[in-house]
């Protein structure tokens, strides 16, 4: 099996680079996101760290997820009290005294050593078979800073949701998300690191993904509130996330990032983005005693140009942390789902997405002789997001732009269908012209 050969080849390279655990004096091969973390935050930050380390070294995605899950499971069985920050370090924040914080670098060194030890064991005794996702979905992603001073977007494509969290209930899951930060990247980074972790723990995940998503967004917002108080952070982030669970596609969103589902070449509305000028959002804010003012664009209380977001705690509850959700049954005739920040949708109407994606697929690319179907599908889809980002920029967008296209059927099938449609239309036109005039 090619996948198994690929994993074994990676393991050989990895154990050659890391033949033994890291000692206490050696620098970490990858930097932690934070200097200190709560026990709850440790899980998301450790998984992010491990995936970043393995991805940079070319590890197969499913294997990375399994290895990170194994290392985290072992880490959480350890006594972590030696890594606690002294409690008095946080006494200036009365409402945070109950939070136990860990020193990130030494505890992440322990996590990485668990990961290295697991890799060494698997290299000696390869675990076979191990669970692969039952279906492969090409995913095309591209993001640019554009004309802004900083890049404040984050995104996450996690086809290996079950493998990362050790879920074995027989229901296939994949998670995709785009987060658009403002006032700094902290809120977007935090949400991209923790939202999927919180979602995986929701008891209603399998029975009611929408309620699980709403609870996960709310809890992530509360988690970030604690961090923002500790570290005096003021940023915020809109976001849109998709969970494909069995034959259901659930979309959850805060703010004006959007998702568009395309079925049989037609855009399907699956959400209504939150904007301050949307009538129900305006009414909600005014009922709370706030206002919407126009200052180049519509703003909440003259400040933020978003009405819902993670963070932005100086304007809560006017800027709400409550996500909206919708669930769509997948019938098997869906083409793809596109997720993007407002930097894309500022210049591209959702109804234009199918035409643009088709144009992108029709662009000439490097031909690949041979190779398996999965590789050829990746090659065809890879350029799609780049094309869409370039189009939005050329149309006048100056904002950060992130676009993610998750194909629900092979891209070649979309091209073949379009080619068939054009041929059929040409045949009809020709028949009409050749028909005798009455």
Q: With helices defined by DSSP (H or I, 4 residues minimum), what is the helix count?
A: 12
CATH architecture annotation of the largest domain: 4-Layer Sandwich
Query: What oligomeric assembly is this protein in?
Result: single chain
Number of strands: 15
On the 0 to 100 scale, the average pLDDT is 89
N-C termini distance = 65 Å
Largest sheet: 6 strands, antiparallel
CATH class of the largest domain: Alpha Beta
Gross geometry: globular
Helix and strand content put the structural class at: alpha+beta
Order of helices and strands: HEHHEHEEHEHHEEEEHEEEEEHHHEH
CATH superfamily of the largest domain: PPM-type phosphatase domain
pLDDT < 50 runs, ≥5 residues: 89-96, 367-375, 423-428
Task: Estimate nothing, just give the exact number of structural domains.
Answer: 2
Look up the CATH topology of the largest domain. Phosphatase 2c, domain 1
Helix content: 40-55%
Beta-strand share of residues: 15-25%
Provide the gyration radius in Å.
24 Å
Description:
This is Protein phosphatase 1E. One of its GO terms (molecular function) is metal ion binding. It catalyses: O-phospho-L-seryl-[protein] + H2O = L-seryl-[protein] + phosphate; O-phospho-L-threonyl-[protein] + H2O = L-threonyl-[protein] + phosphate. Its cofactor is Mg(2+); Mn(2+). The chain is α+β, with helices and mostly antiparallel strands. It has two domains: 2-124, no CATH class; 139-423, Phosphatase 2c, domain 1 (4-Layer Sandwich), CATH 3.60.40.10. It has helices at residues 2-17, 39-56, 61-75, 104-124, 161-165, 186-200, 209-231, 279-287, 342-345, 353-361, 373-394, 411-434, and strands at 36-38, 101-103, 139-144, 153-158, 173-182, 236-245, 248-254, 258-263, 266-268, 292-294, 298-300, 310-311, 324-329, 334-340, 401-407. The strands form four sheets. Strands 4, 5, 6, 7, 12 and 13 form a six-stranded antiparallel beta sheet that branches. A five-stranded antiparallel beta sheet has the order 3-15-14-8-9. It is globular. The chain starts with a helix and ends with a helix.
């Amino acid at each position: 099996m090619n996948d198994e050969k690929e994993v074994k080849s990676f393991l050989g390279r990895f154990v050659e680079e890391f033949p033994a655990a890291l000692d206490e004096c050696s620098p970490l091969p990858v930097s932690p996101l934070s200097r200190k973390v709560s026990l709850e935050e440790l899980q998301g930050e450790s998984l992010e760290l491990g995936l970043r380390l393995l991805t940079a070294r070319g590890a197969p995605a499913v294997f990375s997820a399994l290895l990170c899950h194994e290392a985290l499971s072992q880490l959480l069985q350890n006594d972590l009290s030696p890594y606690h920050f002294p409690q008095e370090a946080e006494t200036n924040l009365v409402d945070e005294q109950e939070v136990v914080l860990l020193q990130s670098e030494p505890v992440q060194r322990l996590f990485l050593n668990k990961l290295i030890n697991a890799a060494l064991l698997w290299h000696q005794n390869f675990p076979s078979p191990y669970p692969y996702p039952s279906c492969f979905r090409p995913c095309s992603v591209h993001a640019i800073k554009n004309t802004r001073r900083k890049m404040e977007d984050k995104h996450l494509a996690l086809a290996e949701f079950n493998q990362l969290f050790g879920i074995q209930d027989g229901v296939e899951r994949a998670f995709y998300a785009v987060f658009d930060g403002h006032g700094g990247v902290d809120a977007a980074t935090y949400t991209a690191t923790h939202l999927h972790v919180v979602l995986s723990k929701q008891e209603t995940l399998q029975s009611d993904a929408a309620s699980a998503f709403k609870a996960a967004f709310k809890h992530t917002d509360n988690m970030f509130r604690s961090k923002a108080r500790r570290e005096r952070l003021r940023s915020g982030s809109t976001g849109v996330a998709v969970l494909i669970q069995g034959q259901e596609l659930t979309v959850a969103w805060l703010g004006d990032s959007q998702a568009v589902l395309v079925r049989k070449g037609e855009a399907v509305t699956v959400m209504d983005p939150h904007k301050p000028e949307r009538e129900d959002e305006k009414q909600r804010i005014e009922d709370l005693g706030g206002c919407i003012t126009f200052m180049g664009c519509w703003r909440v209380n003259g400040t933020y140009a978003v009405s819902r977001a993670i963070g932005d705690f100086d304007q809560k509850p006017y800027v709400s942390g409550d996500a909206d959700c919708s669930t769509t049954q997948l019938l098997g005739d869906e083409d793809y789902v596109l997720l993007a920040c407002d930097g894309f949708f500022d210049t591209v109407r959702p109804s234009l997405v199918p035409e643009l994606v088709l144009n992108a697929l029709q662009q000439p690319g490097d031909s690949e002789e041979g190779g398996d179907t999965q590789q050829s599908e990746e090659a065809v889809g890879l350029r799609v997001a780049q094309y869409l980002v370039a189009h939005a920029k050329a149309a006048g967008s100056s904002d950060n732009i992130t676009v993610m296209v998750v194909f629900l059927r092979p891209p070649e099938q979309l091209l073949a269908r379009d080619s068939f449609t054009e041929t059929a239309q040409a045949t009809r036109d020709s028949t009409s012209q050749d028909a005798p005039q009455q």
